[in-house]
Amino acid sequence: MELVHERLLAILVRKYPWLYDTGSMFYNDNAKKAEAWEAIGKAMGIPSVVAKAKWRTLRIKYNRMKCQTIGKTGQAASKINRMDFLAFVDSDNNPRPTCSNISSQENDDDHTTTTIDTTVEPATSDTTADVHDLMFAEFVPRVRNLKKADQTKVVEEVAQLIANALAEQALEEAAN
């Protein structure tokens, strides 16, 4: 799935916490979930079952990437997580603890337990990114990689498209 579509899907799913948050009071409400998937599918222009399958795949991919970034002691630094836009599901999706039959000498000598609060609150903002904000944000780095002449051409053509659309809209409103 293309990164733009992944981000769009994540933005849309985030609006419906009962799809991913087991603590939500509507988490077990299948009718409410079905309505949410219908709305997401409609917004993306795909059937709801496809949107649901894409979300499942994206979430699995994110969990695998997250486990790879945790790594083991002594490993090299991990790659940057390009799927950090899915961090909002982390509050619900903590990996299961694992154990080993190999004990370390450090752990045998010291039986103290340290608790660390790892709760991360999502950033709050007065404005939420919508589909169009996301789309244009994805275009910017691509346009920056073009030659200056091509950058200018792209900007001029996009500006012309917007001007044409606004003119058509004004004509339609005047006709009504």
Q: How do the SSEs run, as a string of H and E? A: HHHHHH
Main sheet attributes: strand count, strand direction, barrel closure: none
Write down the Rg. 23 Å
Quaternary structure classification: single chain
Helix-strand category = mainly alpha
Which overall shape is indicated by the principal axes computed on the Cα atoms? flat
- Count of discrete alpha- or pi-helical segments spanning 4 or more residues: 6
Beta-sheet strand percentage? under 5%
Summarize the amount of helix as a percent range: 55-70%
Runs with pLDDT <50, length 5+?
Answer: none
Total discrete domains: 2
- Count of extended strands: 0
Average pLDDT level: 74
The end-to-end distance, rounded to whole angstroms, is 41 Å
InterPro entries: MADF-dom, TF_Adf1
Protein name: MADF domain-containing protein
GO biological process, one term: regulation of transcription by RNA polymerase II
GO cellular component, one term: transcription regulator complex
Any chance you could write out the topology, listing elements then pairs?
Elements: H1 3-14, H2 30-44, H3 48-70, H4 105-109, H5 131-144, H6 148-175
InterPro entries: MADF-dom (IPR006578), TF_Adf1 (IPR039353)
Protein name: MADF domain-containing protein
Domain MADF: 8-94
List its salient traits.
single chain, 176 residues, mainly alpha, 6 helices, flat, MADF domain-containing protein
Structural commentary:
The protein is mostly helical and 176 residues long. The protein folds into two domains: 1-72 and 79-93, no CATH class; 137-175. The protein is 55% helix and 0% strand. It has helices spanning 3-14, 30-44, 48-70, 105-109, 131-144, 148-175. Helix 1 (3-14) packs antiparallel against helix 5 and helix 2 (30-44) packs across helix 3 (48-70). The longest helix is centred in the last third of the chain and has 28 residues, at 148-175. The radius of gyration is 23 Å and the shape is flat. The mean pLDDT is 74. InterPro entries: MADF-dom, TF_Adf1. It holds the Pfam family MADF_DNA_bdg. This is MADF domain-containing protein. Residues 8-94 form the MADF domain.
